[in-house]
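REQUEST ID: PR-0412
SUBMITTED BY: lab tech R.K.
PRIORITY: routine
TASK: structure prediction, single protein chain
INPUT:
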Amino acid sequence: MKPVTTVKVKPKRIKSPRIVHQHDRRGFWQALLLVLLLGAVGWQAYSWGVRQGGYDRDRSTQEIVALKTALEEQQAEMRDLEAASVRHRRQAEIEQQASRELQQQLIAVEDEKAALQSEMEMLRSLVSNDNGSLYIKNLKVQPAAGSNRFKCEFTIVQVMEKVGTTKGKLVMKVSGRLNGKKARLDRTEFSDDDDKAVKLEFSNYQDVRGDMQFPEGFEPQSILIEFLPRNKELKKLSKTFAWEDHLQGTE
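STATUS: complete
OUTPUT:
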């Protein structure tokens, strides 16, 4: 039997064939061109539609700006109207309050007038008995700010019906003690205007108010009020009042 001869075969590397597609890159450019073409056609169609529809971008922008401006003006006018409305409401409230206060004042004046009328009727009954036609009512003295200073007020009433305007002079004197001695001060010694008498003209009554500044050390005890009428129908008024009877507390 013959011996087997072993032959070594050297393996060879087999290369696969390379497949090349010749049309790949050309198809890409064709697709891109188609997209661009479609975009151009779409834009042309949009532009044609805008032109056919009468759309003007610049004019539309101007109209939008004009509308915004008009809206802002309307809003500003609305705010002004709201502010004016608030002011009018406040003014109306103030006028209503003033009206109520005036009504209350009128009621008070009417009440005072009615009370005075009633008192004048009573005083006229005294006139019929020849007891005079001039009277002093509501005398009040009150300490004021300052050393030995007082406020004084009263009303002169004339009740004779036939007299139109009452004219005359008002004279006031205060009696008391000055540094322990009796003293009598006329108006020039305690009034601010240094007038000895005050001229008055009134119909039925006259309110009198004023300040009194007495010398240091003077203690008032009584006050004399005189009215010297120029009307022939009226008699002189002269009345003395005790100071303490009409002195009221401080303000």
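NOTES: The radius of gyration is 57 Å.
REVIEWED BY: pending
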